[in-house]
Amino acid sequence: MPNGSDPWESRGERPIQDFGIFKASEVERRGPHGKTGRFVILDAPDWGVVVPILTRNGARYVLAVRQFRHGSGTVSLEFPGGVVESGEDPERAAARELREETGYTAGRLTLLGDLSPNPAILTNRFRVYLAEDLRPEGDQSLDEHEIVDVREIPEEEFLESLGGPGWDHALMLAAAFLYVRRRG
Amino acid sequence: MPNGSDPWESRGERPIQDFGIFKASEVERRGPHGKTGRFVILDAPDWGVVVPILTRNGARYVLAVRQFRHGSGTVSLEFPGGVVESGEDPERAAARELREETGYTAGRLTLLGDLSPNPAILTNRFRVYLAEDLRPEGDQSLDEHEIVDVREIPEEEFLESLGGPGWDHALMLAAAFLYVRRRG
Q: What is the ipTM of this complex?
């Protein structure tokens, strides 16, 4: 009897369309039930976010960014992050995004997790880093259509508010899960 | 000076391609910086997952499902869930997916959160429910290409393993964040 732990066998793949930020392909695969199906998947560059923790007078703050997002058509509060460029080391990409979006650099970056943002449709990885020993190094350095506000939010307030309106980016809650588990 | 909390103004939208499980569109929007850009977004039906908690002899277990995923090309351990059908109530969809994938029904469903799976590119919502008072009601009832194993995993083992190989679906960690915060 076929079971869910059996891998499917690839029978080919054809590109459908390149959208720049991701490419759509159709894969043909044969499953453990002996049937063949065709499935649309999206190939995107890897993504990463940084959970930046500022410590001041013994209190912890999260450095978060606010920006308009075109999928939801709403303003979203998030951890800094973005796309890993082709050939770029993921940790360097995380450090770069932190610097560009917030103006801060981190004395220490720790990988909290290496996830799939959505294995049903996406081929790429989503890495989560903890950033500590933060130091302001200058102004933001943003792309043409990036307009990003930086906010320092007391850690407990941040963790309690996550999931509410404007704080509802699911990948950020995944990052928060990894952070809270590590922090204990 | 433009800031990240200012919404962008829509200047139009054109469909690009309908892939069945999602549709790609291009939106044109004018930002608070006075510039206009074009952005590719994906319109998908809403998604939902259920965190099903079984209690037996005072111990808690998570009812998880294992299945091959075509984006990652790997087997993934997940909470039961799926797509909200057109016109379907999201809570009914969650109850239906739980029943179809595991054979269990829930005496009580509680909304834990209403998230965006990825506001940068997706327009849809991702709802997370807690399912309690679970009762086995019969066999699974799966679609043609669904092959799903059901596993009962001790809750602490599940929460510690989340994020590791095969347990790395980021949206499931987002659901776990909401569950752990509610459980306390």
A: 0.96
